[in-house]
Amino acid sequence: xxxxALIAILGYGVTRVVWFxxxxxxxxxxxxxxxxxxxxxxxxxxxxxxxxPNMVHALAFVLLLILAIFDEQFGWMRxxxxxIKRTHKDINVASQKDETWSESALLQTAKELVDHYKIDLAxxxxxxxxxxxxxxxxYHIRLFIESINNENIDMQSKFELIDVHxxxxxxxxxxxxxxxxxxxxxxxxxxxxxxxxxQVIKTIDQSTEEIYxxxxxxxxxxxxxxxxxxxxxxxxxxxxxxxxxxxxFYYSNNLTQYLFAxxxxxxxxxxxxxxxxxxxxxxxxLVRIRCAKTPSENPQFFLIISxxxxxxxxxxLIRHSSIGALKTDNLxxxxxxxxxxxxxxxxxxxxxxxxxxxIIGLTxxxxxxxxxxxxxxxxxxxxxxxNRNVYVLSPLSGIDSYQEAIDIVNYLYxxxxxxxxxxxxxTNS
Length: 429
Fold this sequence. Notes:
3-stranded antiparallel sheet, 9-stranded antiparallel sheet, 23% strand
């Protein structure tokens, strides 16, 4: 036993020498742990071979391992105790100047905060919930998205990818008609396609059609977009979910109310929600997407993309001059001293007298790059700022408008971040 103890102590000494020599050069904790265990084994091997080559080495190895693990754990505990003592000291110094920093007061504040949070969450009080977040809502967004993600893991696994592949096809570069096979949610549909339209029409019923536009890329077929006919709600629920899930969004039908402001008196409030609702993070920005339609026999469908912005603006509506009448109750048209902008867009505000500076500040950051984005041929977009949220309304003509609206929302968010000081100057004056 004494011999084993001597071997263990000798091996431990060798281990510490190697450890102190190499430890300052290491950064990752995992690397340090691996090195620590490796030196233990190496030191045991050296002592066994050189010093005491008999069966005593087994007991020596166990003792050395116990010594090493105890030393490492003791070092971790020692550092932890140092941090705890330092924190207690800082709190005691602060509590002498302000009683709210005392340990009992901090615990009571934390308890009250949790209780208030539970109440606000249960009441869906959006304004109150923003108090628990940073300006970009980062904490609550991550908590919220995590819960949505957990709910939809099973749902995402059930969706079948839409596949497009040729059947007796020649080449889309010629004028000949090619027959292709489209698989949608496990159902095969074979139609005729030509190089000009590149479309496959699937009739759902007498009032509904889905039009699949395909393209060939790197020698393979892929689905470019899903278009909707004028006959009805051809942009079906499953297709809507499938495409958005592919792009990293999560379907949610009842949880989004916690993070988004109420949409009263907006220009699109007359539109009817079709029940197609998604939420997700896009470049760290919380975005909500939904589909709506006009209340008519031959409805027009829209995508409404909304996101919370870091700075407040009054109720401002910006829309392309070519767009038909939208609801503008309680909104008043204003003129902005920017000819290039005013040639293409109409600007409305809820309070003309008090909003002039805010509108000038907003249109200043809506530079010509953004104007070019808003005047693309695929769609005419409407932008509306209300209650710390931005809304982009786009006619639903296909996935192109979907992606374009998402890009606009992200672009606006980046502009607001980069020009936040300028925006605050306008809003606080």
